[in-house]
Design brief:
- There is one protein chain.
- It contains nine helices and twelve strands.
- The chain is globular and about 50 Å long.
- It has about 300 residues and is α/β, with parallel strands linked by helices.
- About 40% of the residues lie in helices and about 20% in strands.
- The protein has one domain (about 5-290): Purple Acid Phosphatase, chain A, domain 2, CATH 3.60.21.10.
- It has a seven-stranded mixed beta sheet, covered by helices on one side. A five-stranded mixed beta sheet has the order 5-6-7-9-8, with helices on one face.
- The structure holds manganese (II) ion (MN).
- Manganese (II) ion binds near residues 85, 87 and 211.
- Manganese (II) ion binds near residues 45, 46, 85, 127 and 298.
Length: about 300
């Protein structure tokens, strides 16, 4: 059967695909990638799960197809930005990075990028682990929660196979335990407020990140917070359309949209100065927590 023509979009952003982990939803991710023809593609960290190389590496032919598709996109003109995450932190090694880039000339690898939308709004794009104090100060704890999380995913998978229909999200069950762990990690790390402060210091109007496996778009008075989600649980990606609208595509939930003002005007400059109080930021983060289904740091 012939596939429908891919939709041309300005930017496509995805994170936490965790290729190499048995929980990665590689087939669904490849189908999603094939739906779009982006001018720019951002892999917002944890695209490859390096933590699994020594403890259960699952690299299927679909993973090869994904890499081949990315190279083919690059050859047809898509600029590919690879943001390093904690599971693919090997990319933060300059020697490794230089070796990779020699064979992939249209791939650029950095810890963060600034994405400028068609109307000139600026978003800091980063994975997020560098703003997660649990990840940075107690990696043993981060690895411990990853083990619990993986066990939940295994239980979900078994339950789904046994009891659920194929079109339901296999990770929809067992969510209470996962949510508790995720909320606790977010509370302890103050993740969103730190990352938004960093974006503000870089003269950005918002942030686009991943890491906590919680797709979201939160519009506050001061800044925009977008999380691209993941391809382990939620199967989500963020799209910037040519008309400037941001669209969070969610496989198992209703999509979310953010229509940015048509021009980045002087308003944005003043709200940067006026809105940098802690109180407003907490409100923005609280709004984010209220609309999220989960929030695991992985
Ligand atoms: Mn991560």
């Amino acid at each position: 059967m012939q596939r429908p023509a891919p939709t041309p979009v300005r930017t496509l952003l995805v994170s936490d695909v965790h290729l190499g982990s048995k929980h990665s939803r590689a087939e669904e991710f490849l189908a999603f990638l094939r739906e779009f023809q982006p001018d720019s593609l951002y892999l917002v960290g944890d695209f490859i799960d390096g933590w699994k190389i020594n403890t259960g590496w699952h690299w299927s032919s679909v993973c090869d197809d994904i890499v081949a598709h990315l190279i083919s996109l690059a050859q047809r003109g898509t600029k590919i930005h690879y943001v390093s995450g904690n599971h693919d932190a090997f990319l933060r090694n300059p020697a490794f990075r230089a070796g990779c880039l020699a064979t992939l000339p249209r791939f650029e690898v950095e810890d963060e990028f600034v994405l400028e939308t068609v109307a000139g709004w600026k978003f800091l794009v980063t994975h997020g682990d560098l703003f997660d104090c649990v990840e940075n100060n107690a990696q043993w704890l981060s690895k411990g929660t990853t083990t619990i999380y993986d066990a939940c995913l295994c239980l979900n998978r078994w339950y789904h196979k046994t009891w659920q229909h194929r079109d339901r999200n296999p990770h929809g069950v067992c969510s209470v335990l996962k949510d508790r762990v995720k909320r606790w990690i977010r509370f302890v790390s103050g993740f969103e407020s730190k990352i938004l402060n960093h974006a503000r210091q870089n003269d950005c109007d918002g942030v686009i990140c991943g890491h906590i496996h919680t797709p979201d778009i939160v519009k506050g008075n001061a800044m925009w917070y977008c999380n691209t989600g993941d391809w382990v649980e939620n199967c989500t990606g963020l799209v910037e359309r040519h008309d400037g609208q941001l669209h969070l595509v969610r496989r198992y939930d209703e999509d979310l949209f953010l229509r940015l003002p048509a021009q980045r005007g002087p308003m944005s400059r003043t709200f940067h100065e006026e809105a940098s109080t802690d109180t407003e930021e907490r409100e923005l983060v609280a709004a984010g927590a209220g609309t999220s289904s989960s929030g695991y740091a992985a």
